[in-house]
Amino acid sequence: MNYDSLKKVIDETARECGISEYEIYYMSAFDASVSALKKEINASSVGESGGLSLRVLKDGKMGYAATELLTEDEMKRLVFKAKENAENTEKPDTVGIFKGSSEYPRHDFKEKELLSNEKMAEVALELQNAAYAADSRVADGTQSSVSSFGFEVRLSNSWGLDLKNSAKASVIVTEVAVSDGNESNSAYSVEEYDAGMDLGKIAADTAKKATDNFGAGYVESGKYNVVISGKEMKSILAVFSPVFNAKYALMGMSLLKGKEGEMIASPVVTVSDTPAREEVCVKSYFDAEGVSARAKNVIKNGKLITLLHNRETAKAYNTETTGNASKSSYSSPVSISPYAFCIEGGENTLEDLYKMAGSGIYVTSVRGLHAGANPMTGDFSIESGGFMIENGVLGKPVKSFTIAGNFYDLLKSVKAVSDKVTFGVSGGVSCFGSADVLCEGISVGGK
Amino acid sequence: MLSKDLLEQALGVVLSGGADFAEVYCELTRNGNIQLIDGRIDSIADNTVSGVGIRAFVGVNTVYSSTSDTSREGVLRCAKRVREALKENRGVPRVVLNERIFPNIHPVKICPDTAEMKYKCDLVKAACSAAKGYDKRIVQVVGGLLTVDHTIQIANSEGLLTEDRHIRTRMNVDATAFDKGENQSGASRHGRGMGLELFDIYKPEDNGIEAARQAITNLSATYIKAGVMPVAIENGFGGVIFHEACGHSLEATSVGIGMSQMCGKLGQKIANEKVTAIDDGTIPSAWGSVNIDDEGNPTNKNVLIENGVLKSYMIDRLGSRRMGLPMTGNSRRENYTFEPTSRMTNTYIANGPDKNEDIIASIEYGLYAKSMGGGSVNPLTGEFNFAVNEGYIIRNGKISEPVRGASLIGTGSEILKDIDMVGNNMECGQGMCGSSSGSVPTDVGQPLIRVSKITVGGR
User: Fold this and answer.
1) Half-sphere exposure in the Cβ direction for B121 (13 Å, CA)
2) B81 touches chain A (CB under 8 A)
3) CB A404 to CB B458 under 8 A?
4) What is the DSSP letter of B96?
5) Per-residue model confidence (pLDDT) at position B87
6) Which residues contact A183 (CB under 8 A, 6 or more apart)?
7) How many whole angstroms separate alpha carbon A401 and alpha carbon A387?
8) pLDDT digits (tens, 9 = 90+) for B203-218
9) A27, A145, A275, B421: which has the fewest C-beta neighbours closer than 10 Å?
10) Number of Cβ pairs < 8 A linking chain A and chain B
């Protein structure tokens, strides 16, 4: 059944059930990938999926149901299930289904093209060959892959709102294994593919990152000035991003409730949230309630400007929604999340940060953030790797240490940010970026 | 599920592309999720996952295609995509499927979908009320009840046709305590491969109280000082240490391509002789158990390490081809969109010779990790990390003040040798394990153990 036929069945069934307000959120996705191992293509895959989520307002409460079975009978079941779920929910819905914004932004970003299987294979092999050529210690187990994916979202509701968005992108992953006979190491890189990118350099840089770890030493436990690379800082920002979620604040699970207008970070810290940013592949024009999406600063020069809101939290705060309603998947209830969320850069180079640190540690890898960082408390203790900074320049590699602290304190401890921002690859509408940051007095656990 | 005729036709299409093995996996999963926030049912959601994944092998190379379109046309289009990627075009061979029925060793008494919604909501309310009532400093409780009804069908070019239905139930409670300007958290999760009879084993109230107790305990905890020290790790979810430090490195996903610290070590002593570790997907109604894996093989009890000696890896079909070793019933995937690969089921360190009280008494100064969080590992280097959710300092052989903010890091090969005392209260905890084939339910387990030295990350 096509979308309009599914919608018609839902509309008729909803009316029969006495439901006048409902919203359909439909997502279809396509992805393909090719991977290479031992300098030859060893796997390829292609997938297509589509699912429809329904939320209905019944007796002042919201009920949800979602399915990938796109049949007439299943659409009827979906309405009955959503109605039953609304009837058993206890929380009154305070905002209903959205009638629509007065206008929606459009941008002139050129949509990317999906890569053909042949092109993906060519790129995967080029990455493989470049990795092996980069260093004689590159070992079997080195993998490279290219994925190309696209999705389309459609949001329609009983008020006649009908919005569409889509995105396409390709991503390259290079994982390089190295061995010198005594020691094995690995490193990986994930980047959005661009036709003009230097694949050889990416593979060689990844191989170097792996070989740099040979002979890595251990660091003494203590307090250090720490430069966290933008690539790692964006991951730390991502795991703590719920502290900017107004729903978490209302629930007492973020300490930022009521802190708008206060200094919560160092004056060098500005955190922006941008729905459509040039360097990020997924660009949003409306949120998961159909509200027009807009750019804003969440922290400006250390001051908290706003939390991220959907319509429900905005009403509770007696403010306007920031257009950050989201769904973690098409089937999830409406929540809140950022778009391109970024610790913006300054004027210092990375080398300036080393100099300002004097002696300290440059952190180039963090692992286990899902376990070692707790957004509810702000505490983190994270396995890390990197390099010593000695007399303002990079020194020997170090491994197997932890950096520990509290995210709220970390924001205040930032002494400087670099001029280069690194973004990750979009996961849904959210994508995180950060400049390299110099933080003072971070606890390091080592030998 | 798909008709036998359609399955045979789809397999034939794939083989005509030159595959030496073809497989069709079909899935229908009904998930239910009730969430309670602020003392009332906040949302109730249903989600149906339905689709097909078709896979082909040519030697150790693979082609995979998936679709949520389970119509005849959708399935055959999916099969043709695989054939196109294989690039050959032979005649379509005839595949004859023979149905095989495996015994169900995980019986379900109360199928979640048949229970009244109010009954299920009341279970979550009971857990959260108990947590909120535990202490006035508990400011927020979030509770959830997840139910999964998962039916799969697997057919392959060797003639196998089989189906399985697996039901899982899990309750989670997260409590937030607030005092003197700071938050602390506590969590409790219990799940089983069973229906709502889960709550005959675990009272919802106990789940809530456990989460609240942990949050309140952490309010009075001080930050642990970083350093290297002996650590006693408690049973249950403490078993995540073996899961991360060693388990992932024993999966064919890593071993089969040379990306594991455990490559080529079968028969070698890799751990202290007190360590015997097992992966057992056959434990009745356990969280990580299934009757058959996602390639249609019955699960097994696999002894991975026996008295410190490496005895077995966990091997899926592709890993079996790469490594020249038999499959072990460990092939798993989150859903049809993922190609299956070798994964853990219920993995634990077996009871050892030491008394638990002797383990604590043996530590002059160290950490008692009562409750562990999650972790991760690099299988090649064995470098792992995991978080301690609830910990205490051990002084002069006695458990003393609570500490927070600790994480444990190290390398698998070292820690296996440093597990020098193994107690006798083996118990499992439930987790969701993420890897290349998605997120799958796994039990981790162990008795109380002592690690003679490990880096503790703190302040």
Assistant:
1) 20
2) yes
3) yes
4) -
5) 78
6) A214, A215
7) 11
8) 999 999 999 999 999 9
9) A27
10) 241
Q: How confident is the model at residue B112 (pLDDT cuts 50, 70, 90)?
A: very high
Sequence-distant (≥ 6) Cβ neighbours of residue B376 within 8 angstroms? A367, A368, A370, A371, B244, B384, B385, B386
- What's the fold here for domain A3-88? PmbA/TldD fold (3.30.2290)
Interface test with B, best of A33, A59, A327, A377 (most B CBs within 10 A): A377
pLDDT higher for B385 or A53?
A53
Domain assignments of chain B as residue spans, ordered by start:
227-457
CB < 8 Å to B383, chain A: 367, 383, 399-400
Supply the ipTM of this predicted assembly.
0.89
> How many helices, marked H, and strands, marked E, lie in chain A?
10, 18
pLDDT of A96 strictly over 80: yes
Within chain A, all domains assigned CATH 3.30.2290.10 are found at 3-88, 117-152+164-210
The confidence band for A107, taking pLDDT boundaries of 50, 70 and 90, is: confident
Q: What is the mean pLDDT of chain B?
A: 95
Through-space distance between the first and last CA atoms of chain A, rounded to whole angstroms: 62
Nearest residue on chain B to A78, alpha-carbon basis: B46
A252 neighbourhood in chain B, CB within 8 Å: 139-140, 176, 178, 183
Mean pLDDT of all residues in B392-417 = 93
Mean pLDDT score of chain A, rounded to an integer? Answer: 94
Helix, strand, or coil (residue B256): coil
Q: How many Å lie between the alpha carbon of B34 and the closest alpha carbon of chain A?
A: 9
Q: Cβ contact (<8 Å) for B385 and A143?
A: no
Interface residue B151 vs chain A (CB under 8 A)? no
DSSP state, residue B329: S
**Range name among A22-31, A372-381, A433-442, B434-443 with the lowest pLDDT average:** A372-381
Asked if B376's CB is within 8 angstroms of A368's CB, the reply is yes
Alpha carbon distance B142, A298 (integer Å) = 26
Are B336 and B26 within 8 A, CB to CB? Answer: yes
Confidence of residue A105 (pLDDT cuts 50, 70, 90): confident
pLDDT tens, position by position, B361-373: 999 999 999 999 8
Contact between chains at B226 and A90 (C-beta distance less than 8 A): no
> Which residues in B lie closer than 8 A to residue A372 (C-beta atoms)?
373, 385-387, 407, 457
Determine which of A20-24, A179-183, B139-143, B322-326 has the lowest per-residue pLDDT on average.
Answer: A179-183
B447: Cα separation from own chain's centroid: 18
Q: If you classify domain A117-152+164-210 with CATH, what class do you get?
A: alpha beta
